[in-house]
Design a protein that fits this description.
Length: about 100
């Protein structure tokens, strides 16, 4: 299957001399690519210059099957803000289950 194919449409028809019947439907195509997200904590405690080396990213150029999509770097001065940013998601979660009730 070519990359990016979302659905395949199929049509099956059975016929005799007197009757015909058919069915038409859609088959989802699962991508052969897997999106992998990797995060890395970059602690910066004091003023100054600090260097970080992304060894896995540097080594990914040698792979024949691995392709980089994008790099996203997010800087937060107080890591506790991650918990605050998650609150709207927890409050507006559409399903009522024990896990979400506990998280609220």
């Amino acid at each position: 299957m070519p990359d990016g194919a979302g659905f395949l449409k199929y049509k099956a028809v059975a016929a005799t001399d007197n009757l015909t019947d058919g069915e038409e439907g859609w088959l989802p195509v699962i991508s052969r690519w897997i999106l992998v997200t990797e995060s890395m904590s970059l602690p910066i405690r004091n003023a100054g210059t600090k260097e970080f080396e992304f060894t896995k990213l540097l080594g990914s150029g040698e792979s024949e099957t691995l392709g980089n999509r994008f790099i996203h770097v997010q800087v937060v001065l107080q890591p506790a803000w991650y918990a605050v940013m998650a609150l709207p998601y927890l409050m507006e979660y559409p399903h009522e289950c024990s896990e979400q009730t506990f998280n609220r």
